């Protein structure tokens, strides 16, 4: 599959939210990305694989999770305009602890680490773009760690603030797994939330 | 207190592990940092404060933790040559969930967000340095999240691989708090580790 104009547009828009590029700079960046279609339930990464790519989501919904005690623990979701990867595995060339799979038929643009490193050296603004992305991702993750020991209600609020507008892409079971609670607890929390909204009227 | 030559040397060495600087570039960077002495148990940041600085540790030992259910949960330690801050609070200008305090008398260099942003714009190599720092910090934190649901033994191994050579700076209670286990469990794990080493001989 060849890279399509709408994919280029989505990628450029995402980068230009942070840094403005010349056409020449963008073409050089885009030339290192290749499109990939992933069917629902197909893997981009499996535990024990070495992660080789960073992925930019064009369409669909993906999740990163790990298996522990035969249960899935969702670590992150990614939707249109998000990036997803296992950077620890990629940086250290070590087997991943995570799976990344598609929750629905999805399209991503992938770029490998060598291409990224050469883009970082060639295009200063691309380096800056990734600095800002990592800065946000790191800070969001610090916050997530703090949330993990708060109440289930707080954790659901965190989910809504991060992912709320994509909630229809994700099953209740997957949200519960992200929050580390049962489906029954999730539905209790959501009902409480609705009750609170009605009470406020 | 004026910035001292050994502080400048430590800062320059830390940055030059990633990018080489001219003297002019380093002087420009260093001019935005100011030294700060922190006595044992003194705070650099308290919960509900807005975090205003990134800190580079010259000497001593610091920790970042939060309070939950009247217990301290250590999120991160920082020793000579490490950086520590609450980036979520700094980026979003929101009250912090965390405390940062000194485990022993310490010296840090501090730099505020406005100075950092202007350095990012003026010195391309400094931007790259932070991109690499955030990339490593983000990936280490992804790994830490995966570890948090593994066994106490695995979590102790993670602590040793990250902080082992600084273990003498940190009390057993603080290590236990970082691992999310009791002091009794920590001492059992350490004894098991020593037994294993002896058995291998």
Automatic annotation (TrEMBL), chains A, B:
Biological source species: Pedobacter psychrodurus
Domain Cyclic nucleotide-binding: 38-122
Name of the protein described by the UniProt record: Crp/Fnr family transcriptional regulator
Highest taxon listed in the record's lineage: Bacteria
Alphabetical list of Pfam families matching this protein: cNMP_binding (PF00027)
Residues annotated as transmembrane: none
């Amino acid at each position: 599959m060849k890279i399509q104009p709408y994919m280029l547009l989505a990628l450029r828009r995402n980068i230009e939210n942070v840094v403005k590029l010349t056409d020449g700079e963008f073409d050089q960046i885009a030339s290192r990305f290749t499109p990939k279609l992933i069917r629902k339930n197909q893997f981009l990464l499996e535990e024990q694989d070495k992660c080789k790519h960073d992925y930019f989501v064009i369409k669909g919904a993906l999740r990163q999770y790990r298996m522990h005690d035969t249960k899935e623990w969702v670590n992150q979701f990614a939707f249109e305009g998000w990036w997803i990867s296992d950077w620890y595995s990629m940086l250290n060339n070590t087997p991943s602890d995570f799976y990344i799979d598609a929750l629905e038929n999805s399209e991503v643009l992938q770029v490998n680490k060598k291409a990224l490193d050469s883009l970082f050296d060639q295009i200063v603004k691309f380096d800056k773009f990734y600095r800002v992305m990592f800065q946000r991702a790191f800070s969001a993750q610090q916050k997530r760690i703090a949330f993990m020991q708060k109440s289930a209600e707080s954790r659901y609020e965190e989910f809504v603030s991060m992912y709320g507008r994509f909630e229809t892409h994700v099953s209740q079971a997957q949200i519960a797994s992200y929050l580390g609670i049962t489906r029954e607890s999730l539905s209790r929390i959501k009902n409480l939330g609705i009750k609170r909204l009605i009470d406020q009227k």
